[in-house]
Amino acid sequence: MGQLLNHLKPLPVSKELEYPESDGKPMGETQIHIQAMLYLFAALQYYFRQASQIYVSANMLLYHEEGDITQFVVPDVFVVQGVSNHVRRTYKMWEEGKGPTVVFEITSKGTRIQDLANKRGLYEMLGVREYFLFDPLDEYLKPRLQGFTLVGGGFQPIELQADGSMYSRELGLSFVPEDKLLRLRNPETGELLPTFNEAFEQAEAEAERAAAETERAMAEAGRAAAEAQRADLAEAELAKLAAELERLRRQKED
């Protein structure tokens, strides 16, 4: 019996498959590409900040086949409509119940072929509704902003506007190439969503205006207090003079 027990091996413990959170590749090829990606991510996240069922992410591993950790893609920026906007470590389509609605790729010399061929085909297969490509250096894509919309299971080009911008029907936003950034234009105001530097400058200017208003209000309050003090002193002097005149009148009558 002891020999039999010695030959028995414990059953293997089933382990949940771990999906890596990084592919080991850098975020962008150059600082220019990183800045373009970060602006687009931050601007979209800010614009949809009050939408509880719109999720915006960037440079995240997106797994599209359960049980196979090799089947993933890393969009530069993507938006998903109809899922909670809570923070995630990776995006697993089978858990979320849907894939990206809109994807953006900041293309470069090293990624342009993959962005135009491999990723385009994969995004079509995954049912991405709109796919945008932007070349911040204006070197590899002509025109530098290109967009596609899913029609009947395949991508069809989105029309480029006269000013070089492109409209996203899915997001209700226009995207405008400006210098090395793909700017977002607010459809309600027609204004571009600010960059990090512009937002800081606006905040600083607003803080300076608020400080100036406070200083003016305090100066006005000081002047008002001084006027009130002078009025009190004048009233006291008048009362004193009236009392003295009354004393002199009575003295004269006596």
Describe the structure.
By secondary structure, the protein is of the alpha+beta class. It folds into 2 domains: 31-193, tt1808, chain A (Alpha-Beta Complex); 195-254. The chain contains 6 helices and 12 strands. It is elongated, with a radius of gyration of 34 Å.
Short description:
By secondary structure, the protein is of the alpha+beta class. It has 6 helices and 12 strands.
The CATH level-2 architecture of the largest domain is identified as Alpha-Beta Complex
Number of strands: 12
Number of helices: 6
Write down the domain tally: 2
Reading side by side through the largest sheet, how are the strands ordered?
1-4-6-7-8-9
Q: How confident overall, as mean pLDDT?
A: 85
Oligomerization: single chain
Task: State the order of secondary-structure elements, H for helix, E for strand.
Answer: HHEEEEEHEHHEEEEEEH
Q: What would CATH call the class of the largest domain?
A: Alpha Beta
CATH superfamily of the largest domain: tt1808, chain A
Sheet of most strands = 6 strands, mixed
Helix coverage percent: 25-40%
In percent terms, what proportion of residues is strand? 15-25%
Helix-and-strand structural type: alpha+beta
Keywords:
six-stranded mixed beta sheet; elongated; alpha+beta; 254 residues; tt1808, chain A; 6 helices; 39% helix; 2 domains; three-stranded mixed beta sheet; single chain
